[in-house]
Amino acid sequence: MRVPAQILASEGLLDAIIKDRSLNQLVNVATLPGIKKASMVMPDVHEGYGFPIGGVAAMDYPEGVISPGGIGYDINCGVQLLASQLQIKDNRDAVEALSKELHAHVPAGMGKGGTIKLTTEQLDEVLAEGANWAVNHGYGTRESLSYMESHGKLNDADPAFVSTMAKNRGLDQLGTIGSGNHFVEVDFVEKTYNNTIAKTYGLQKGQIVLLIHTGSRGLGHQVATDHIRKMMMAMSHYGINVPDRELTCVPFNSKEGQEYFKAMCAAANFAWCNRQIISWEVKNAWENIFGKEGGDLRLLYDVAHNIAKIEMHTIEGTSRKVIVHRKGATRAFGPGFKELPPEYKGVGQPVIIPGSMGTCSYVLAGTSKSHEMTFGSCCHGAGRRLSRSAAKRQANAPVLKEKLREQGIFVEAGSFRGIAEEAPIAYKDVGSVVDVVSASGIAKKVAKLKPVAVIKG
Ligand SMILES: Nc1nc2c(ncn2[C@@H]2O[C@H](COP(=O)(O)O)[C@@H](O)[C@H]2O)c(=O)[nH]1
Ligand SMILES: [Mn+2]
Ligand SMILES: [Mn+2]
């Protein structure tokens, strides 16, 4: 190991964490060339491809490595949070119709295409421009870009390094959520913890909000597949040995490192454009149900949780440029960060933590402590405690769907199998996960959200 391994967890959560290979993976990551300070995991950690999901690793810039396993196959999977002006108490009756309308507007399911069919030239524009492409083509307002991490665009994107096969997979997938863990969800604010920050974010008790969780779809997956294959062949040329072949990596400043990074940025841009178009469809569905009286759906924030970014961080008292890999980890920058919209600058960035379709989700705020402890990062969800197959064995989907309905949660899903794999028992207790990040000081609790309708892939 080149650096120590750092685990943020409680004793209770450790019981689940030690059951899979995630801690072995954490240790393996600590051996990678150029890693700084520590190999880190968040309390929602679970086993992933090479790197654990819930992992953070910062590598020296530019000689340290970049590893696709530290980002994940769903490049820029992330979450968008929309805030409405309506209260749940006045609108319970409309929730079921809203869930059906959302399901009709947002194509869901594996490989499902959307209504937008791009030409290859248009797709290249999307890959270069990210969410800007969406607003330039009438899907949302320019103002919304200020409420996205990196304003919805990574400038280093180069579509030339995205293969034809990857592009073909993306041509009809804008505006779609995909399968399984991805969702569009209607929630309400059950509770606020920090009234000052809640007010700054425009959140209040009882308010209806919506979550959109998806990423770069088949295009991002293909980018990862293509470049992992190339890196596997190139790695020995750079004299790199890794304890697990899934940790394939090359120096960031190598030819293969630069090609992957530019393709990853392009896939990240596709994901931001995708969430922006879904958000526009969500607004259409909302208006169809509530009319003009439904008011505006305001973008509160859009965060990535599978990405690598070049950032400045203080390490042993010196400010250094590093390549921060966040794989199932959300950026959690504190107050003063210049990219934030002016009204959020005093309180830190919104950190959006989905829990599960039957429990709850959280909105947190980033802190300066996250810069000291975790390269400005936080957890990204509750994290799986059961594999998909174990969840399928344990959950009875038709019974679960009915139970959730009795609790006032309408579930629209492509299949019962999808519901079983995503059953709340498949996930850790999100409250315990959030308590750990809040107690460690890397994020502050702002609001707790309760679901009332979930559209699953
Ligand atoms: N509010 C909801 N949260 C959900 C749902 N399904 C999954 N999840 C949470 O999302 C995170 C992130 O997932 P990942 O696939 O990107 O790792 C996961 O850990 C769960 O806690 C849902 O339907 N609603
Ligand atoms: Mn995700
Ligand atoms: Mn994803």
Automatic annotation (TrEMBL):
Mn(2+) 2 binds at residues 213, 305. Transmembrane segments: none annotated. The active site is at 380 (gmp-histidine intermediate). Keywords: GTP-binding, Ligase, Manganese, Metal-binding, Nucleotide-binding, RNA repair. Binds 2 manganese ions per subunit. Pfam families: RtcB. Mn(2+) 1 binds at residues 74, 182. Its cofactor is Mn(2+). InterPro entries: RtcB, RtcB-like_sf. Gene3D superfamilies: tRNA-splicing ligase RtcB. GO terms for molecular function: GTP binding; metal ion binding; RNA ligase (ATP) activity; RNA ligase (GTP) activity. It catalyses: a 3'-end 2',3'-cyclophospho-ribonucleotide-RNA + a 5'-end dephospho-ribonucleoside-RNA + GTP + H2O = a ribonucleotidyl-ribonucleotide-RNA + GMP + diphosphate + H(+); a 3'-end 3'-phospho-ribonucleotide-RNA + a 5'-end dephospho-ribonucleoside-RNA + GTP = a ribonucleotidyl-ribonucleotide-RNA + GMP + diphosphate. Its EC number is 6.5.1.-. One of its GO terms (biological process) is RNA repair. GMP binds at residues 181-185, 305-306, 354-357, 361, 380-383, 456. Belongs to the RtcB family. Monomer. This is tRNA-splicing ligase RtcB. It comes from Ulvibacterium marinum.
